[in-house]
Amino acid sequence: MSAPKVGDSFPEGVTFSYVPYSPEKDSLTACGIPINYDASKEWANKKVVLFSVPGAFTPGCSVRHLPGFIDNLEKIKGKGVDVVAVIAYNDAFVMNAWSKANGVKNDDILFLSDVGTKFSQTIGWTMGERTARYALIIDHGKITYAEKEASGGDVSVSGADVVLSKL
After folding, report:
1. Buried b (16+ CB within 10 A) or exposed e, 85-98
2. What is the pTM of this model?
């Protein structure tokens, strides 16, 4: 698949790695067990906001990108969004710790690992070995918004405020 465009179908066979939220594993130092998350199946009949960051715990991602989605989560969900998910090249343990460090619980936002950047490579949106910074809106299997930042440090087309305006 080349770069996604509005009207494209979300690809089949997209799987991420993920540590599900668990109250008994709520501590930052507690480790859950990663599972495969079949995004193609899970999102087939849902409205989804997926945003990608180059790396968990990095300044641009932790200061400029993720907080907008946390702060606007209720507004985004109020537009009929069933799932908000963030992906990065980091492994599922790091993504889980990043979720906890930002106070996100109950899988309000899914923190998913794009293992080996497989999905991002498939759509051609990587930044070297890392996932690029981008956002997709998927509505019942169809892409309704797809934009990649021109520069890894920019948050102009993939931020929560822009995504919210496209819902």
Report:
1. bbbbbbebebbbbb
2. 0.96
Q: Write out pLDDT tens, residues 40-58.
A: 999 999 999 999 999 999 9
- Catalytic entry in 61, 76, 132, 155: 61
Any catalytic annotation for residue 61?
yes
Q: Using one digit for the tens of pLDDT, what is the confidence trace for 9-52?
A: 999 999 999 999 998 888 888 889 999 999 999 999 999 999 99
